[in-house]
């Protein structure tokens, strides 16, 4: 019996399976590329916020890139030191900013002049001098899906060059603030180093302009976004990527901050679902599974491709298959028109490269409880998040009849 089948029998489907050994190997490969370069790698918690996975990153010496107060709590709980945490995000709530200041994180990355004012106000209330970095919008259009491109001039993220310079100058003049760096992030699924080089050059220009005005900085945050070849092809050259950034940081005498997420954790994850029913349509077989877009929304949201394997005990004839879920939406699918061994009811399907932006984007749509998560390490496995329950779905809800009954 395969490990997937063993876990499915014990835990039930659907579930996410993470390979901790793969994640550890990816962490080591990434860190080796930056060996000898002053840097701090900050795991992008938004990619996968499972505490057990964040803890692996913490043990490897990584910090965390967070985008919410909830991620701050999870990063700290998993063992990430506060002085290795950077807080990105275009819409931080005042209470989230307050919590970050109280925790004394490494830096808050501001994305508007209004946000800078709020950080300064909260810093004065707390009686602390708060480190801030300014996120530059480098006006670089990444060759990626429009929904995950974040560096163009039309994007909601970051500040234009002139505004970013103003923000740095204002922070330098405010006794409650300490400007420490510049950050940028042009998008996800990046494979073209030329686009990254352009962004680095524009950040370097801003760094130099700030220095001319007497604003001394420490951190050059190059964001994340390294691509994963879901459909095959050549992976991005991490050593070449590191070389580009190392040269820039050496010129500026800066410490690099890096925010990988997908590249680290996507290959470590597999979504496992079971085929409930099959039916044949003209030219194809439709496999209806117990997992759906509420569990893994990327194909519906981005038309994203994930490799899929039929976990079958014997060889099967192949054919064209639509792999769909139980949710009442036509967009509820994992693959359409995919050439696969023809599935049968009861078969397990393994949806690969599902460690990033999958479980974290799941929902309880159609009142379907959240699925379980399992971590495998060193030949053993354990459940790191139990299946949700129907009771969970109504937790916290109130309605009139219930209120009357309580009286």
Q: How is this structure best described in words?
A:
The chain is of the alpha/beta class. It folds into 2 domains: 3-14 and 267-394, Lyase, Ornithine Decarboxylase, Chain A, domain 1 (Beta Barrel), CATH 2.40.37; 34-260, Alanine racemase (TIM Barrel), CATH 3.20.20.10. Helices cover 33% and strands 24% of the residues. Strands 1, 10, 11, 12, 13, 14, 15, 16 and 17 form a 9-stranded mixed sheet that branches. Helix 5 (94-103) crosses helix 6, helix 7 (161-173) crosses helix 8 (193-212) and helix 8 (193-212) packs parallel to helix 9. The radius of gyration is 23 Å and the shape is globular.
The parts where pLDDT drops under 50 for at least 5 residues are 142-152
**Overall pLDDT level:** 93
Assess the beta-strand content as a share of residues. 15-25%
Level-2 CATH architecture of the largest domain: Alpha-Beta Barrel
CATH class of the largest domain: Alpha Beta
The tally of domains stands at 2
CATH superfamily of the largest domain: Alanine racemase
Largest sheet: 9 strands, mixed
Alpha-beta classification: alpha/beta
Task: Report the end-to-end length measured between terminal Cα atoms.
Answer: 55 Å
Spell out the helices and strands N to C. HEHEHEHEHEHEHEHEHEHEEHEEEEEEHH
- Tally of DSSP β-strands: 17
The level of helicity is 25-40%
Question: How many helical stretches?
Answer: 13
The geometry reads as: globular
Give the CATH topology of the largest domain: TIM Barrel
Q: In angstroms, what is the radius of gyration?
A: 23 Å
């Amino acid at each position: 019996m395969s490990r997937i089948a063993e876990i499915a029998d014990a835990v039930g489907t659907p579930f996410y399976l993470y390979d901790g050994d793969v994640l550890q190997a990816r962490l080591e490969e990434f860190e080796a590329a930056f060996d000898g370069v002053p840097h701090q790698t900050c795991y992008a918690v938004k990619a996968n916020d499972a505490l057990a996975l964040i803890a692996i990153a913490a043990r490897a010496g990584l910090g965390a890139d967070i985008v919410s107060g909830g991620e701050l709590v999870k990063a700290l709980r998993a063992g990430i030191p506060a002085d290795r945490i950077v807080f990105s995000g275009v819409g931080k709530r005042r209470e989230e900013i307050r919590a970050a200041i109280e925790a004394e994180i490494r830096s808050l990355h501001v994305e508007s002049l209004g946000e800078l004012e709020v950080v300064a106000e909260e810093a004065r209330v707390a009686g602390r001098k708060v480190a801030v970095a300014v996120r530059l919008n480098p006006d670089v259009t990444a060759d990626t899906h429009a929904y995950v491109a974040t560096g163009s001039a039309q994007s909601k993220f970051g500040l234009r060059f002139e505004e970013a310079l103003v923000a740095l100058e204002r922070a330098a003049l405010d006794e409650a603030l300490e400007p420490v760096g510049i950050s940028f992030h042009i998008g996800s699924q990046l494979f073209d180093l030329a686009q990254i080089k352009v962004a680095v050059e524009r950040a370097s220009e801003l760094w130099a302009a700030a220095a001319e005005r007497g604003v001394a900085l420490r951190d050059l945050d190059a964001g994340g976004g390294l691509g994963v070849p879901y459909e095959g092809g050549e992976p991005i050259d991490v050593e070449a990527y590191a070389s580009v950034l190392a040269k820039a940081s050496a010129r500026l005498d800066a410490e690099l901050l890096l925010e990988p997420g997908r590249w680290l954790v996507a290959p470590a994850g597999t979504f496992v679902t079971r085929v409930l029913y099959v039916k044949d349509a003209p030219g194809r077989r439709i496999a209806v599974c117990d997992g759906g877009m509420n569990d893994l929304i990327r194909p519906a949201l981005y038309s994203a491709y994930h490799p899929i394997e039929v976990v079958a005990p014997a060889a099967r004839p192949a054919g064209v298959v639509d792999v769909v879920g139980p949710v009442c939406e036509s967009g509820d699918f994992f693959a359409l028109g995919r050439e696969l061994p023809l599935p049968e009811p009861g078969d397990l399907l393994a949806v690969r490269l599902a460690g990033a932006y999958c479980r974290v984007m799941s929902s309880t749509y159609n009142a379907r409880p959240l699925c379980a998560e399992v971590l495998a390490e060193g030949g053993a496995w354990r459940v790191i998040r139990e299946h949700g329950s129907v009771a969970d779905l109504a937790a916290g809800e109130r309605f009139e009849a219930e209120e009357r009954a309580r009286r």
